[in-house]
Amino acid sequence: MADERSPHPAEERLASYFDKSAEIVRGYAGRFEDSYEHVKPAMDVWNESYRKYPVITLFVTLFGSLSLLPVLSFLGITVFTIATLAFVAVCSVGAASIASVFLFAFVLLSLLSGLFLFSILATIFGVVGYLTFRLATLIRADGRAGVLEWAEETKGHIARGRQLRAREASPAKDQNQAEDSEGSEMSHVVVKHDPDADEKRID
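Above: the chain sequence. Below: its structure as C-alpha cells.
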C-alpha cells in the first residue's frame, strides 16, 4: 500500500498564487495581442518607411514622441485659459451690470429727492413772494388800510379753497342724507284701516 501524503498548506498557497499569476499574464498577453492587431498596420507602415528613409523616419519618430507632451500641455493650458477668461468675463459683465443698475438707481433717487426739496422750496418762496408783492401793492395803493385788505384777501384765498373742497365732498353727503330721509319716511308710513272694506268682506 502506497504512502499517500496530503499536500502542505504552503504548497497549496503557492500553487494558487501561481495559477492567479498565470491567468493575469495570459490576460495581459491577450490584451497586448489585441492592441498589436490594431497597431500592426501602423507598425508595418513605420517599418516600410524606416527601410526606405531610415534617418528621416527616426528623426520624425523622435521629434513626434518628444513633442507630444508639450503639444498636449499647450492644448490643455489654452483650453483652461480660454474657459477661465470666459468665466471671468461673464462674471465681470454681470457684476458691472448690477453695479451700473445700482449706480443709476442711486443717481435717480438723489435727483428725485433734490427735485422734491426744490419743489417744496420753490412753492414756499412763490407763495411768500406773491403775498409780499400783494402786500406791497396794497400798502402803496391804500396805505395802512392795505394791510387789513391784504389780510382779508389772504383769508379769502384760504376760505375759497376750503369751500371748493367742501363743495366736492357735499354731493356724497347729500346723497347719503337723501337715502336716510327716504328710509325714515318709509318707516313712518301709517296703514289706514278701511271699515267699508271689512263690511264688503263680511257680505
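Residues 53-168 form one domain.
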